[in-house]
Amino acid sequence: MTDSTPPFEMEGLDHLVIRCVDLDAMTHFYCDVLGCTVDRHNKEFDLLQLRAGNQLIDLVTVDGVLGRKGGAAPGPEGRNLDHFAIRIDRFDDAALHTYIAEHNIEIVEEGPRYGADGTGPSVYLRDPEGNVVELKGPPNPG
Amino acid sequence: MSTAVPFTMKGLDHVVIRCIDLAVMKHFYCDVLGGTMQEEDTEIGLYQVRIGAHIVDLMPVDEPSGRKGGPAPGKDGYNMDHFAIQVEPYDDDAIREYLTGHGVVLGSTIIRGGAEGEGPGIHIKDPEGNTVELKGPPDPAYN
Fold this sequence. Notes:
heterodimer, A: mainly beta, 2 helices, 8 strands, 15% helix, B: alpha/beta, 4-stranded mixed sheet, 44% strand
């Protein structure tokens, strides 16, 4: 009989690692458009770690040391990650739409969505390689 | 000239994993790792597992939302290399013993850079081959 209680507690997410093809285009999107900053660039593993608030979004290129282990580049189907969400503050719907349009980014869908801290407004964008990124605003009061 | 970003990022909120066998995945994320099934939306096919401050959503590929993404993920060509969950306390021996007891495939433990600094992390496989890193707190010796 195995011990049924884990010897740890989960605190939350720490980072996620996206496999990509065009690192420049992806870095432009996550840093220049969404506002991430480069936390560190681990050249040994071809791993670029971008800070997204309290967590990290890491990028590995599919032809790099880590990326090669996952074989072919991701295609439109057969993905393991449907989407991921970044919690943002200052969710100003009008300003957000203007800003997103300025960068010629498609809004995949939008509306109130349930997130880790409750239901609030969301917009879903596609990054340059088709990954869907949800920008999730603060929970609605009440 | 482009305007400034009209928001600030607080951090990650959730990740949504496309899966094949919901029961097996629920068992892993809830019973083995200690997550809590928070909400099961059978209409759209989304199952929300609370992992501390954040959520891992399971999305079966044969339910309405999952079907939109086509076939199930395979051994290559997937878009997420891995994701990491912060765990405390981090006792590598105890974690290995516990997970081995549950038949989990374990990788190496190395000092890895996470959102809060360098600290121990073990890579494990969920039942459908996704790599999940269990990341311990930053170790002062490496920071």
